[in-house]
């Protein structure tokens, strides 16, 4: 019982992790796509770094732990498709145990990050979920659903260069060149060294 107040925070966190991944528990298994929400992850027992983080944070908080999502914006997790660079933010969970910060990461073997992850708000975490949905819809050729999801992401977090860059990709694929240019420029205004936005902006102007 991970909610038992007599269990120390470290043991409680470990019990929660074991429960999430053990065959006799939730038996969660990693898959890159699609990115499922908490309910979908629970139903299908499939998670990527973002959905695992969301599940862990929710369950950890319910058990009395101080947990939060954290992100590495410069993680080297990218995908090139038809000359377009999609760039992902790697996400994992942070938890405070006896005043010390620890990280819980389902995908650490598959990502390289140059800096320590930083804590992000719940709103930004959900924005990243909508961003992933947008990219996945685009990869499936559903431009309308992609546009709706990226707008939802920006409504939650308009300060993310990655989300703005992906918005540019979505607008560009749908033929909305003016909106695409504005989105790319917004991304590089927010983060001048954003690799995805810079690469896609160069490709955008070369195609003009």
Walkthrough of the structure:
- By secondary structure, this protein is an alpha+beta fold.
- Helix content is 50%, strand content 16%.
- The protein contains eight helices and eight strands.
- It has helices at 9-21, 38-44, 49-62, 122-139, 143-156, 161-173, 177-190, 195-206, and strands at residues 29-30, 46-47, 66-72, 78-81, 84-87, 90-97, 100-104, 118-119.
- The radius of gyration is 18 Å and the shape is elongated.
- Residues 108-115 have low confidence and may be disordered.
The proportion of residues in beta strands is 15-25%
Total number of helices: 8
Q: Uncertain runs with pLDDT below 50, 5 residues or more? A: 108-115
Task: Estimate percent helicity.
Answer: 40-55%
How many individual β-strands? 8
Principal-axes geometry comes out as elongated
Give the C-alpha Rg.
Answer: 18 Å
Can you summarize the main beta sheet? 4 strands, antiparallel
Q: For the largest beta sheet, what order do the strands appear in spatially?
A: 7-6-3-8
- Distance linking N and C termini: 61 Å
Structural class: alpha+beta
From N to C, what is the helix and strand string?
HEHEHEEEEEEHHHHH
Q: Mean pLDDT score, rounded?
A: 86
């Amino acid at each position: 019982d991970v909610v038992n107040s007599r269990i120390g925070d470290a043991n409680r966190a470990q019990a929660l992790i074991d429960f999430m991944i053990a065959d006799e528990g939730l038996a969660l298994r990693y898959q890159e796509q699609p990115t499922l929400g908490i309910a979908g992850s629970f139903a299908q027992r499939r998670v990527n770094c973002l959905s695992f983080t969301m599940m862990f944070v929710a369950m950890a908080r319910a058990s009395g732990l101080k947990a939060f999502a954290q992100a590495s914006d410069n993680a080297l997790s990218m995908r090139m498709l038809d000359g377009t660079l999609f760039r992902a933010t790697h996400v994992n969970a942070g938890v405070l145990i006896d005043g010390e910060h620890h990280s819980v990461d389902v995908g650490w073997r598959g990502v390289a990050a140059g800096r320590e992850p930083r804590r992000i708000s719940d709103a930004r975490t959900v924005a990243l979920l909508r961003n992933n949905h947008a990219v996945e819809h685009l990869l499936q050729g559903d431009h309308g659903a992609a546009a709706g999801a990226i707008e939802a992401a920006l409504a939650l977090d308009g300060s993310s260069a990655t989300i703005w860059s992906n918005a540019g990709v979505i607008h560009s694929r749908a033929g909305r060149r003016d909106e695409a240019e504005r989105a790319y420029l917004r991304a590089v205004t927010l983060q001048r060294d954003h690799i995805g936005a810079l690469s896609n902006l160069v490709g955008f102007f070369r195609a003009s």
